[in-house]
Amino acid sequence: MLEIKNLVKGYNDFTVLNDISLEIQDSQIVSILGPSGSGKTTLLNLILGIIAPDSGSIIFNGDDITKTPMESRGFNIVFQDYALFPNLNAYKNIVYGLKNKTGLSSQQEVDALIDLLELREHLDKKIDQLSGGQKQRVALARTMVMKPKILLLDEPLSALDGVIKESIKEKIVTIAKEYKLTTIIVTHDPEEALTISDKVLIINKGKIEQYGSPEEIIKQPATSFVNDFIIKQLAIKKNNIFKLFGGENNAQ
Q1: How many CB atoms lie within 10 A of CB 10?
Q2: Which residues fall within 8 angstroms of residue 44, CB to CB, at 6 or more apart?
Q3: Please, are residues 217 and 226 in contact by the beta-carbon 8 Å criterion?
Q4: CB under 8 Å to 158, separation ≥6 — which residues?
Q5: Which residues are CB-neighbours of 219 under 8 A, at least 6 positions away?
Q6: How far is CA 172 from the centre of its chain?
Q7: What does the DSSP 8-state code read for residue 70?
Q8: What whole-number distance in Å separates Cα of residue 160 and Cα of residue 146?
């Protein structure tokens, strides 16, 4: 379990995150949702260990990792721009991290992941020969072969649309469930968060507005901000998520 307790982070005189506390159970998919500048990426970076909080603590499986270096936490991230090596083909990108981690993933495990993500026919292609969805799957495979304790995804669907976007959503859920992997996703898209997650954390101006299941958020928005940011946006898009969770489309 990942426990975040009273996290505060600021820069100069500006507080980016203010007293953030929540628990994420093992194997859950949790989305961090909010508008631009709400503190989503800062929270992701604190969990990953890229930056340190001003106060508060991060507990993982009972151990305080607040001051543990990023490379020692065992968490891995798929960045928004994929961060793939353009001079290497897809396969070499996938196994790149295993050079210095001999025995971490067997060839059989690597092959199983390649097949799960339907990448077999693309392994010899250079990165610039891949579509956006294929690049995302290569980035996921590269991260998964490192056997992360927690998988972090930064806006994983923002550059995708249509059928490709839905396909990648399905792959993320499949990986999380098949590997029993705690997965944390940063997104600005309410539809994405509500359809992919077990729980959704909604933050605004560095504070938690609501933390609950998609059904709870749809049926019982905790604040006017949640109602405006989620319910009204979905209503404008004439979204059917209301019916999916048995709620009412009551946005004004």
Answers
A1: 15
A2: 32, 77, 152, 154, 184, 186
A3: yes
A4: 80, 187, 188, 189
A5: 245, 246, 247, 248
A6: 9
A7: H
A8: 25
Q: Which distant-in-sequence residues (6+ apart) come within 8 Å of 190 by Cβ?
A: 33, 229, 230, 233, 234
pLDDT tens profile 86-129: 999 999 999 999 988 877 899 999 999 999 999 999 999 999 99
Pick from 130, 150, 146, 148: which is nearest to 138 by CA?
130
Residue with structure tokens 């995302």? 136
Provide the pLDDT confidence category of residue 158 given band limits of 50, 70 and 90: confident
Tokens of 153: 């995804």
Structural tokens at position 129: 């020969």
Among 88, 129, 94, which Cα is nearest to 113's?
A: 94
Q: How far apart are CA 218 and CA 240, in angstroms?
A: 11
Residue 57, SS3 per DSSP: strand
- Dump pLDDT digits (tens) for 7-48: 999 998 899 999 999 999 999 999 999 999 999 999 999 999
What per-residue string of b and e applies to 43-67 under the rule 16 or more CB within 10 Å gives b?
Answer: bbbbbbbeeebeebebebeeeebbe
Q: Is 58 helix (H, G, I), strand (E, B) or coil?
A: strand
Q: How far is CA 17 from the centre of its chain?
A: 18
Residue 206 to residues 8, 10, 36, 50, 221: CA-CA distances in angstroms? 9, 10, 11, 18, 18
Token code pair at residue 151: 């998988």
Helices (H) and strands (E) in the chain, counts: 11, 10
Distance CA 88, CA 107 (A): 19
Token code pair at residue 204: 């605004």
